[in-house]
């Protein structure tokens, strides 16, 4: 089974891109499955179900989405194997720019949109830096110049990434994306494979339910901001 | 220049010298929150002053930062040979929606203008998509697009990295909150243009020539009128975009000199496709592709009679323009005004 991981900020168009991509792949119904990792709630299962694509949803809730991803992705692969898929696509919404749900050797796609501001690629970090393919959406409503500057800023962060502009509504560009997927690795399990980047580390009192503000309540791993006196 | 050459440079020159020679290195430092390192030291020494913890946040150690910087400088010093050398493209026909063969082969050279006409939903976008992905008989239309008379393998198609085609359409907007000058400078910088001021100046001048109403370079791009926006986008595409092919989708009634706009792009040796129903634009093209049932129905060469009729059409167009301007200025429409 081929495995592809897709990540990107909320509302960047991940689901639209995956749907257009599956359409383009032209594989028999039921041979591609999707696992959607989200935080609190999501309506994307409806879009997948309407398209007749088997989908499973997982919500990280109070757990860091990256930690949640890495502790469940192997189970996702096993679900895919049991379901007899030829391809499994995991889709995860990155909430903090630190998110990077990519695995070494597994084709990884980052979806970001042109409306998020030209400098956004330079701020995203590992989610963009460690992706094999960067898909840019919503390019049809901004100027050519802004598309080019955006692509330039992506290159700054990820010099080796392939950049593909995909229109999530018409599907323009998804054909080339589908071609890339042929290179995706066949896997049976992810056991012993490694993440491309460490997950955010934070084991502090607030992780375990503390809500009161003040030094007396802060325990465990903390990072304090430095303020310059004026 | 390859990675090793840059490694030698950053190991022997101060940060300040490297930045002076490769201004883009400044961006690299900013990307890793390293803008404040000492500029009078060489890179390895300057990095020694940075806290380990901060580098760890990026998942890098000092040696990796240096490696990454070299790859970064290498990436942005490469010249784009592949794109500059697109002299012609050839469209080899496939099939229409009824699976009937198109039986055509059309070669278009740099500087040529081709218009695409046909009812809404007839398959114009499919043709434009085929061109954009350099279809090799592997899209639903089974068309083949050749560059400089040659077929392309997947590797070459991927190399283009979405840079082959620049697009311009009525739905496009500026979303950056910058002045016209800042906007052009930003684009020029991303193209690593050496003579930024000169190019920006030319571009701005040209945009003003195309626009019906003048605008200053301190105008925010988001405040430009539809016509001014379109004019700026076209001038920018002509002078700054690296893409050898330009796809223009419906720019009629934009309040700009659209014939001049298209001719300007052609003069810059671009291959231009205009999807339009505007007679003035359609007949300015050398040829027009007629789309029907999802396929290329026929290719018409603009006839001498049609070329000659352009003057007449322009007169019609000017009458309409005059009517619009009269309305805008609070005037009354008289019979005199609609005489051609």
Q: If you had to describe this structure to a student in words, what would you say it looks like?
A:
- The complex is a heterodimer of chains A (230) and B (340).
- Chain A has 230 residues and is α/β, with parallel strands linked by helices.
- Chain A has helices at 14-25, 44-50, 65-82, 120-124, 126-129, 144-157, 174-180; strands at residues 2-8, 32-38, 55-59, 87-93, 107-113, 133-137, 162-165.
- Chain A has a single domain (2-198), classed as P-loop containing nucleotide triphosphate hydrolases (Rossmann fold).
- In chain A, helix 6 (144-157) links the parallel strand 6 and strand 7.
- Chain B is of the alpha/beta class and 340 residues long.
- Chain B has three domains: 3-75, no CATH class; 106-125 and 149-302, 3-Layer(aba) Sandwich (Rossmann fold), CATH 3.40.50; 309-340.
- Chain B contains 15 helices and nine strands.
- In chain B, helix 13 links the parallel strand 6 and strand 7.
- Chain A: InterPro entries: CobW/HypB/UreG_nucleotide-bd, Hyd_mat_HypB, P-loop_NTPase.
- Chain A: One of its GO terms (molecular function) is GTPase activity.
- Chain A: This is CobW/HypB/UreG nucleotide-binding domain-containing protein.
- Chain A: Residues 4-164 form the CobW/HypB/UreG nucleotide-binding domain.
């Amino acid at each position: 089974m081929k495995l592809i991981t897709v990540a990107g900020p909320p509302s960047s168009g991940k689901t639209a891109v995956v749907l257009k991509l599956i359409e383009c792949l032209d594989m028999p119904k039921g041979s591609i499955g999707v696992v959607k990792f989200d935080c609190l709630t999501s309506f994307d299962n409806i879009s997948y179900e309407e398209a007749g694509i088997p989908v499973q949803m997982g919500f990280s809730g109070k757990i860091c989405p990256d930690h949640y991803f890495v502790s469940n992705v192997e189970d996702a692969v096993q679900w895919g194997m049991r379901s007899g898929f030829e391809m499994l696509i995991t889709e995860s919404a990155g909430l903090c720019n630190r998110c990077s749900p990519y695995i070494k050797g597994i084709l990884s796609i980052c979806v970001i949109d042109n409306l998020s501001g030209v400098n956004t690629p330079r701020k995203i970090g590992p989610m963009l830096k460690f992706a094999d393919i960067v898909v840019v959406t919503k390019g049809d409503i901004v100027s050519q110049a802004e598309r080019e500057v955006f692509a330039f800023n992506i290159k700054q962060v990820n010099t080796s990434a392939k950049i593909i502009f995909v229109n999530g509504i018409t599907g323009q560009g998804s054909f080339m994306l589908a071609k890339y997927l042929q290179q995706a690795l066949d896997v049976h399990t992810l056991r012993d494979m490694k993440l491309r980047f460490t997950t955010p580390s934070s084991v502090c009192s607030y992780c375990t339910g503390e809500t009161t503000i003040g030094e007396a309540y802060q325990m465990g791993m903390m990072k304090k901001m430095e303020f310059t006196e004026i | 220049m390859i990675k090793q050459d840059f490694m030698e440079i950053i190991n022997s020159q101060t940060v300040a010298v490297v930045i002076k020679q490769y201004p883009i290195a400044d961006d690299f430092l900013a990307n890793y929150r390293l803008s404040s390192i000492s500029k009078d030291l060489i890179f390895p020494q300057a990095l020694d002053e940075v806290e380990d913890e901060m580098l760890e946040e990026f998942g890098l150690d000092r040696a990796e930062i240096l490696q990454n910087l070299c790859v970064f400088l290498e990436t942005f010093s490469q010249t784009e040979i592949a794109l500059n050398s697109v002299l012609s493209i050839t469209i080899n026909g496939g099939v229409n929606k009824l699976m009937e063969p198109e039986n055509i082969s059309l070669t278009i050279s740099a500087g040529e203008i081709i218009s695409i006409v046909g009812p809404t939903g007839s398959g114009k976008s499919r043709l434009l998509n085929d061109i954009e992905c350099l279809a090799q008989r592997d899209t639903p239309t089974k068309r083949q697009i050749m560059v400089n008379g040659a077929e392309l393998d997947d590797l070459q198609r991927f190399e283009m990295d979405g840079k082959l085609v620049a697009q311009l359409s009525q739905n496009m907007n500026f979303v950056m909150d910058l002045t016209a000058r800042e906007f052009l400078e930003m684009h020029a910088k991303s193209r690593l243009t050496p003579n930024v001021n000169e190019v920006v100046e030319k571009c701005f001048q040209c945009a003003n020539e195309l626009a019906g109403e003048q605008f200053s370079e301190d105008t925010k791009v988001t405040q430009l009128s539809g016509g001014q926006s379109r004019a700026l986008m076209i001038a920018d595409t002509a002078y700054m975009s690296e893409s050898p092919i330009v796809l223009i989708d419906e720019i009629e009634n934009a309040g700009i000199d659209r014939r001049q706009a298209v001719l300007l792009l052609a003069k810059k040796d671009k291959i231009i496709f205009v999807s339009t129903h505007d007679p003035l634009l359609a007949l300015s093209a050398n040829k027009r592709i007629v789309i029907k049932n999802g396929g290329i129905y026929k290719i018409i060469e603009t006839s001498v009679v049609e070329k000659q009729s352009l003057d007449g059409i322009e007169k019609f167009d000017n009458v309409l323009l005059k009517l619009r301007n009269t309305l805008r200025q609070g005037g009354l429409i008289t019979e005199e005004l609609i005489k051609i």
